Amino acid sequence: MKFRVERDVLADAVAWAARSLPVRPSVPVLAGLLIETAPDGDGLVLSTFDYETSARATVPANVADEGRALVSGRLLADICRSLPNKPVEMSIDGSKVSLTCGSARFSLQTMPVDEYPTLPEMPAAAGTVSSDVFAAAVGQAVVAAGRDDMLPVLTGVRIEIEGSSISLLATDRFRLSHRELTWDPASTDASAAALVPAKVLADTAKSLTAGAQVTIALASGGAGEGIIGFEGSAGGGVRRTTTRLLDGEFPKVRTLFPSEHATLARVDKASLIESVKRVSLVAERNTAVQLAFSDGVLTLDAGSGDEAQASESIEASVDGDDITTGFNPQFLLDGLTAIEAPVVELAFTQASKPAVMAGVSSLDGEADLDFRYLLMPRRLLS
Question: C-alpha distances in angstroms, 7 versus 45, 61, 195?
């Protein structure tokens, strides 16, 4: 194997593939990054795989000799990141890979390439979606995903596909996010559902924004079932990633969104975020920040007894009954930050029931229900 490639193109592709490497690989070869010349001899294929998630990037390169080699992925990523801005030449020299860039020379020990597992095939393409829209939607959805590995089902994002609509749902039992977006399905009667690990989905969506579109590949049965794939373009090549779907039944959470409300409040989002940050400075661990809505004013309180206390009032449009409730301040901030609109709408049925947050373009505009964030209240200290 011998090839020449542009430094930035190689560094970017290696970093992208290496991001999926396991921290503690179950077998040593899984810490490797597989470098192969493309089947047609025109370019390279860089791959990583840990039996759960695979990453595969194609890179344009001038190939002199075909071949394949397996080297430490993290070491190669560190080296590529530090190289001068000059073309990179790589070749196999016995049991080592030689890398030359300008006057910099490196020799890397190869790993047994024959022991490396075969990457899973991509399922059939189900459709395409704008990469920017997809990244933003996933970023909003994963906010509510669980992080407790003892409840693996809740560490995922449920993707539901119905025709030209995609729904993203996530919950950790204390909050729930629901994001709707449109896409271009391969079939107008497309219908599928998948539970995707939230961390993998977030990293993938964020990393595929270089191209205009992302292809979502999801098998509805037969070959490729249990796997979801994503593909996008970058650096003159193609990037593909697959991940194994989570097993288990995702809770039926859509019914948690109430169909009516007793109180509707609208507040400037930036002002509310700053107020919550200030007031929550005195909130003890696992205690709520209190929100009291009344007569065009939202009053925030935190702290109690002989300890530090804080109180702040900001303007709010309140329609309906006065209400006082409390929330985990970080969960509240997570939801507020995920909302893209300048005004946030909070809908309440009663103080002890969950509130639903959504974005609004202005105080008197229509709420954007494409993204909704439901938040359970916390018991207030008396």
Answer: 15, 11, 37
Q: Where is the domain boundary, 244, 274, 306? A: 244
CATH assignment of the domain containing 348:
3.10.150.10
SS (H, E, C) 201-243: HHHHHHHCCCCCEEEEEECCCCCCCCEEEEEEEECCEEEEEEE
Q: Which amino acid is at 213?
A: Q
Report the 10 Å Cβ neighbour count for 114: 8
Alpha carbon distances (Å) from 33 to 70, 116, 203, 324: 6, 10, 18, 55
Domain closes at, from 81, 115, 149: 115
Number of domains in the chain: 3
Residue-by-residue DSSP string for 154-192: GGEEEEEEETTEEEEEEE-SSEEEEEEEE-EESSTT-EE
pTM over 0.85: yes
| 303 in Cβ contact with 283 (< 8 Å) | yes
Q: What is the pLDDT of residues 209-235, one digit of tens each?
A: 988 999 999 975 544 569 999 999 987
